[in-house]
Amino acid sequence: MAVPKRKTSKARRDIRRSAVSKLAMPAMSTCTNCGALKAPHKVCKKCGFYKGVAVFHIEEE
Fold this sequence. Notes:
Elements: H1 10-17, E1 29-30, E2 37-38, E3 49-50, E4 53-54
């Protein structure tokens, strides 16, 4: 039966369990129409364009 040779310290255990070290920055791209940051392969929330085509119209205040 496998038994650990040494006790795992709390710091080493918590570093392994932490989700912070596993998170990565989400990918962002610029909109070709307005230049705003947007998620890739998604419609721009600022202008409503996707690949140079107007998908929906956004009303400005």
